[in-house]
Recover the amino acids of this structure.
């Protein structure tokens, strides 16, 4: 059994994988799956810190951003997007994600201002 205390990195990877499973789960209550996915990603991010594991943190943050948008958590998604933007070229997927991220931030800013 993977516990945070015994094997924190493996535990965080398990939480990330659970987040992915809830994100892709098509059965049941979608809102509950979205909430569960967000919780799993947040747990993973407790271990995947920028200092200890910047690449994994960036990847998990991207997944969190997508599910926050799915759950219409605009303020949270905007904060996550800005955190990712701060990674810049430190993130290996920056080149392929930068344009999408800038577009997402602009759209999220509009949603937050409008109060959707």
């Amino acid at each position: 059994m993977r516990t945070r205390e015994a094997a924190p990195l493996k535990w965080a990877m398990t939480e990330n994988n659970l987040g992915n499973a809830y994100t892709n789960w098509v059965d049941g209550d979608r809102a509950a799956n979205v909430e569960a996915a967000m919780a799993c990603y947040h747990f993973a991010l407790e271990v995947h810190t920028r200092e200890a594991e910047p690449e994994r943190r960036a990847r998990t943050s991207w997944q969190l951003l997508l599910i926050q948008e799915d759950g219409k958590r605009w303020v949270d998604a905007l904060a996550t997007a800005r955190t990712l933007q701060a990674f810049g070229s430190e993130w290996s997927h920056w080149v392929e994600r930068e344009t999408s991220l800038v577009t997402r931030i602009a759209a999220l800013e509009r949603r937050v201002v409008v109060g959707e």
Summary: The chain has a mean pLDDT of 92. The longest helix spans residues 94-114. The two ends are 42 Å apart (CA to CA). Residues 8-114 form a domain with the Serine Threonine Protein Phosphatase 5, Tetratricopeptide repeat fold (CATH 1.25.40).
